[in-house]
Specification:
195 residues, mainly alpha, 0% strand, globular, HhH-GPD_base_excis
Length: 195
């Protein structure tokens, strides 16, 4: 059974995120410089525009780069920077094809512990340390992927009862709490810089 995901705040997009490991990875990749719901709706929009009900790493990797960029640029655009993100999505899919035979779930299946899973996630194109930790927390908190030490490897994002990131969004109320936390972090950063 697929987990009940509410990251996109759109039932059809959330349903895809719940059943498609690649959609979850692509949504996380897109989650920067746009609202989370917009980012996590992206995989559904891409799948629809490519004429399917899921994403296929092999197909995306092999797609003509200019044509794939157009898929993301079509109005409404999948991201604020659709051309750049098209390149990133294709790079991620090429890596998955080369390293995991196109199976996104293979990134976490068989990871011996949280540290190994974190290293695998950080090796993905477009996944720096913070994005990898957030996705690790998302896997543990909402997808039931919990190798030993996953919370520690996820750092503060793995804390139970935290409202720091996409990992903690289970509906509109938790989305509001995550947004409030992010705004508080921005205020604290601005205050620190002004001193």
């Amino acid at each position: 059974m697929s987990p009940d995901i509410h990251l996109a705040q759109r039932p059809e997009a959330d349903e895809l995120l719940g059943r498609s490991p690649l959609a979850a990875l692509v949504g996380m990749l897109l989650d920067q410089q746009v609202p989370m719901e917009w980012a996590f709706s992206g995989p559904y929009t891409i799948a629809q525009r490519m004429g399917g009900d899921d994403l296929d790493a092999g197909r995306i990797a092999a797609y003509d780069p200019e044509a794939f960029a157009e898929v993301l640029k079509e109005k409404p655009a999948v991201h604020r920077y659709p051309g750049n993100m098209a390149k990133r999505v294709q790079a991620l899919c090429r890596y998955l094809v080369d390293e995991y035979d196109g199976d996104a779930a293979a990134v976490w299946h068989g990871a011996a512990n949280g540290a190994e899973l974190l290293a695998r996630l950080q090796a993905l194109p477009g996944f720096g340390e913070q994005k990898a930790r957030i996705f690790l927390a998302l896997l543990g908190k909402q997808y039931g992927v919990r190798p030993a030490g996953w919370r520690q490897a996820a750092g503060p994002y793995g804390e139970q009862g935290a409202y720091r990131s996409a990992a903690d969004i289970t509906g509109p109320e938790s989305l509001a709490k995550v947004r409030a936390h992010k705004q508080e972090m921005k205020r604290a950063t601005k205050t620190a810089k002004s001193r």
